[in-house]
Design goal:
Layout (H helix, E strand, L loop, with lengths): L40 E5 L8 E5 L5 H15 L3 E4 L2 E5 L3 H10 L6 E2 L2
Parallel strand pairs: 1-5
Antiparallel strand pairs: 1-2, 2-4, 3-4
């Protein structure tokens, strides 16, 4: 990166400090834990969903891409739709036991059905 890249410091107007250095955000995604170390919780949820029931998988530690891959695999195996974002996987419908079984087969041994 160039030393004088103005696009990286659009929010800074002016500084009188001669030693001032611009903070450049280096948002590095965290690395994905291996499946055996993941502690996932599988719950049934229907709050703020118009009365519809969903299976919610929380506790995933890793990149958004790996989360989406896991979500896609679960949605495919259950034959339903859903979403994967912000560390959560949402599977449409009540598939709590099936999701726990699938996750354990994939190596997520610390998976717990909650509530």
């Amino acid at each position: 990166m160039k030393k004088n890249d103005w696009k990286e410091r659009l929010d800074i107007v002016y500084s009188t400090n001669p030693d001032y250095g611009y903070d450049i955000d280096n948002d590095e995604e965290q690395t994905t834990l291996e499946p055996a170390k993941q502690v996932l919780r599988v719950t049934i949820d229907k709050k703020n969903r118009g009365g519809k029931v969903v299976t919610l998988i929380t506790g995933f530690v890793g990149t958004e891409e790996d989360l989406k891959d896991l979500g896609k695999m679960l949605k495919t195996k259950c034959g339903v739709g859903g979403a994967a974002k912000d560390g959560e996987i949402i599977i449409q419908g009540d598939f709590k036991l099936k999701v726990v079984e699938l996750l354990k087969k994939e190596g997520y041994i610390k998976t717990k059905p909650a509530g």
